[in-house]
Specification:
The complex is a heterotrimer of chains A (178), B (298) and C (314).
Chain A lengths: L1 H23 L3 H21 L3 H25 L15 H21 L12 H12 L4 H22 L5 H10 L1
Chain B lengths: L1 H25 L6 H11 L10 H20 L15 H21 L4 H32 L4 H7 L5 H4 L1 H14 L11 H4 L9 H26 L10 H21 L6 H29 L2
Chain C lengths: L1 H4 L14 E5 L10 E8 L2 E9 L13 E2 H11 L4 H15 L6 H30 L2 H16 L2 H20 L3 H5 L14 H7 L5 H22 L15 E9 L2 E10 L2 E8 L1 H5 L3 H5 L4 H10 L10
Helix pairs in contact in C: 2-3, 4-5, 4-9, 4-12, 5-6, 6-9, 8-9
The chains are: A mainly alpha (178), B mainly alpha (298), C alpha+beta (314).
Main location (chain A): membrane
Family (chain A): Belongs to the complex I subunit 6 family.
Protein name (chain A): NADH-quinone oxidoreductase subunit J
């Protein structure tokens, strides 16, 4: 019990620590990977709280996602290495305000919400995985499928918008210039 | 205790693989060569490039080694000889190996050099190609075993190995595993003839030693995963279970090594195209076929 | 963000990114030593590039300084380490013609065989280099071994190597991935100016790296057939020219294309000379070949030209 609380605390603090690094560095790659390790620490918190499947899934998904984010940040930022001394912050007053409000709301929810009774004994990991699978293919199927199809549609739409339209006029232009 | 045994087995396999690698490239069988060159790395100057991202530069080789060992931690050598018999073992190995990408991006970005950086980002593109071909064949394997536990997966292959039950999945997984381990012909992030070593280019001395050890460990881990998922793990006549696991793992690792020797490096565009237009449909077909088999055959 | 990126050059995909100028060479595993390729990279793509030679000859004889004919031959041969027999032959021919010597068919034949031997060895050397560039370890080993054997071989031993060379070509035809790697890369259509040697002959076919590979493999076989029909090689040695004078001009088809030498001979001394080689022209094609290509393809295209930086005359 104490060991569990200890590890949850350690990974929690690590998650916060890496979260701070995200904003303290001017290097885009460091920032993205700090966010990754913050999320990995959250995944480790899941593991410490005996939700094995969720923890492993979180650790796995974040690695690829944050790496892809990193390359987009490198591509679009002017000073991706943070070595040019460029100021990466803007709208400071608004963001501080928004941050404080959001933190306050989160704390209020954490303390005021009714979290229900604490489970005495968590079911073993294999049971959890099975229960999760049945949940995903049962009651929650509609929600997840809708979300999945929506995201897929958005991705296809975004790609379609990004490709320049090939009309006969501008393809003729292209041939002229070549 | 299991931890020590598995680690020794891993190191031993890495050593054997390095000996075979030396044998195929130089034509001489020198059992001491990997140890000697490892020691030589310790003695050499380990240069740090100008204005590096020091944290990434130092962490990357170690992170690569750690993820390779973590991946091996869920793979059983024998029914009880496994470091962590997780309930989500088949998923965990994916999670561990996803950090190969992170390590390579760090190794690419850290030294502040053009060759390394291109190499590191190239691997991100490579991941987009191979990732689905790692995950989807494993899905089909888990479907047959009706479990994500690696020991149960090996148990499910008693009598009929997955290489026979789902040969398509084996071929896809084997190719994707080679791409994940960035072995030739998928060595795009290192590409000696194109990038002068790529992510390896700026590493010297002890850091390069760790990086090489990590790469070989990664190959062994993936070969071991292939053994567990497709070649029936410890199953085999006469010899004790752990011996079969080791023999199969080494055979897979050596075949990965040899395949690269007789092929030119693939073009990135071709890798991407073939993986998405051919590999993923085949992987889906594999899942459907295995699903039908699981449902129809008792 | 738009304000910051609007003046940056755009790549083909419309993204504005920082471009990097990266040197490849003069000592790079995928390129011949001495060749320096400077590429401007936009991610993994090449936006522009040019090649220079750091070891090429300078095409000027020092004013008023005469070189002994024998010394001239030695110098020219050792200045071109990748095709020394060809240039030795070139120098011998030019000097002999300047001295007014008649052709001698027996000598010519032995010389021609030596030239063909060098052509085989040179093409094998190129194959080994290509293997290194493509990460094709087997090809590097095999071609390098054969190259060394050919260089040491007499006429008879050469014929014994014939099956091995045929097998090499057959093996390359069967190798998966090789065709997709080379086909359509580095296209030089037959109208391109300045082409010579295997590159020009491959241009009549498809003109890409794949065609150049097969052109060179075919030339290896053709040279073998010629050697089989003709006889023993003999290293070009200058015949007795006495203290002849005059102007002479010679052309030799070296492994990389046509080389031309014209010189003025005075009393057995070379007074001035003018050398023109295929590589001097081919190196200028690099900029066009690499532009807009992916890095790997650009390097394959440059490699397929078989540039010898030593034979680039500035």
């Amino acid at each position: 019990m104490y060991a569990q609380a200890f590890f949850v605390a350690v990974f929690g603090l690590a998650a916060i620590g890496f979260g701070v690094v995200v904003f303290r560095t001017s290097s885009m790659v460091r920032s993205a990977l700090a966010l990754l390790f913050s999320q990995t620490a959250v995944g480790c918190m899941f593991l410490a709280m005996q939700t094995e499947f969720l923890g492993v899934l979180q650790i796995m998904m974040m690695a690829t996602e944050m790496s892809i984010m990193a390359i987009f940040m490198v591509m679009f930022m002017m000073d991706p290495g943070g070595m040019g001394g460029m100021d990466m912050t803007h709208q400071k007053r608004f963001s501080i305000g928004a941050g404080v409000v959001a933190a306050g709301v989160a704390i209020v929810v954490a303390f005021w919400a009714d979290w229900g009774p604490v489970t005495a004994e968590a079911p073993d990991a294999a049971m959890q995985t099975r229960a999760l699978g049945i949940e995903l293919l049962g009651r929650s199927m509609l929600i997840f499928e809708t979300a999945g199809v929506t995201i897929l549609t958005a991705m296809i739409a975004a790609t379609a918008v990004a490709i320049p339209v090939q009309t006969t006029a501008n393809s003729a232009d292209k041939e002229d210039t070549e | 205790m299991n931890f020590v045994i598995v680690l020794v087995a891993l190191l031993g396999s890495v050593w054997l693989l390095a000996v075979v690698e030396g044998w195929t490239t130089t034509g001489r069988l020198r059992p001491a060569a990997p140890l000697l060159s490892g020691l030589a790395h310790l003695g050499r100057e380990s240069i740090v490039p100008r204005t590096p991202d020091r944290v990434f530069f130092e962490t990357a080789p170690v992170l690569l080694l750690i993820v390779a060992v973590l991946g091996a931690a869920v793979l059983p050598l024998a029914p009880t000889l496994v470091i962590a018999d997780l309930a989500t073992g088949a998923l965990f190995i994916n999670a561990a190996l996803a950090y190969v990408l992170v390590a390579l991006i760090m190794a690419g970005w850290g030294p502040n050099g053009a060759y390394a950086m291109i190499g590191g980002w190239r691997f991100l593109g490579q991941l987009i190609a191979y990732a689905m071909l790692i995950v989807m064949p494993i899905t089909a394997v888990a479907m047959r075993a009706e479990s994500l536990v690696t020991t149960v997966i090996v148990g499910s292959q008693d009598g009929l190995w997955n290489i026979v039950y789902q040969p398509l999945g084996f071929v896809l997984f084997f190719i994707a595993a080679m791409a994940l381990a960035f072995r030739a012909p998928f060595d795009l992030p290192t590409a000696p003839g194109e990038l002068g070593g790529g992510v390896d280019a700026e590493y010297t001395g002890v850091r390069l030693g760790v990086l090489r050890l990590a790469r070989l460990t990664l190959v062994i881990t993936l070969a071991s995963a292939t053994t567990v998922f497709y070649l029936g793990g410890w199953h085999g006549p006469l010899l004790p279970p752990w011996a079969w696991s080791l023999i199969k793992t080494l055979a897979v690792a050596v075949s990965m090594l040899l395949a690269g020797r007789y092929l030119p490096r693939i073009r990135e565009a071709d890798l991407m195209r073939w993986c998405w237009t051919l590999g993923i449909p085949l992987a889906l077909l594999n899942i459907i076929v295995v699903g039908l088999l699981v449902l129809v055959v008792p | 963000m738009i304000e910051v990126t609007k003046d940056l050059p755009r790549s083909a995909d419309g993204l504005a990114m920082d471009w990097m100028k990266v040197p490849f060479g003069p000592v790079f595993p995928g390129l011949p030593g001495g060749l320096k390729l400077t590429l401007t990279l936009d991610g993994d793509g090449v936006t522009e590039g040019q090649a220079t030679s750091l070891v090429g000859m300078i095409n000027e004889s020092e004013e008023g300084k005469e070189i002994d004919a024998e010394t001239f031959i030695e110098r020219l041969a050792s200045a071109m380490p990748l095709a020394s027999v060809s240039y030795r032959l070139l120098a011998c021919l030019a000097i002999e013609r300047a001295a007014g010597l008649e052709n001698d068919s027996a000598t010519d034949q032995a010389r021609a065989v030596a030239l063909e031997c060098e052509r085989i060895a040179s093409h094998l050397g190129w194959l080994a280099q290509t293997g290194r560039q493509l990460g094709f370890a087997w090809l590097t080993d095999r071609a390098a071994t054969l190259q060394l054997e050919i260089r040491r071989a007499s006429g008879k031993r050469l014929l014994e190597l014939t099956p091995a060379l045929h097998a090499l070509a057959a093996r390359l035809g069967r190798t998966p991935l090789l065709k997709s790697r080379l086909k359509g890369i580095g296209i030089l259509p037959s109208g391109t100016g300045g082409l010579s040697g295997p590159v020009a002959r491959a241009a009549d076919d498809a003109g890409d790296a794949w065609a150049r590979l097969w052109q060179r493999l075919d030339e290896i076989i053709t040279s073998l057939d010629y050697i089989k029909a003709t006889g023993e090689p003999g290293l070009p040695v200058l015949r007795n020219i006495g203290r002849g004078s005059g102007t002479g001009e010679a052309t030799v088809e070296t492994p990389r294309g046509e080389a031309q030498l014209s010189l003025i001979l005075e009393h057995g001394q070379v007074k001035s000379y003018r050398l023109d080689t295929a590589c001097s022209h081919h190196i200028g094609l690099v900029a066009k070949l690499v532009e807009g290509r992916e890095l790997g393809d650009a390097l394959v295209a440059v490699g397929s030209l078989d540039l010898s930086p030593w034979e680039v005359i500035s």
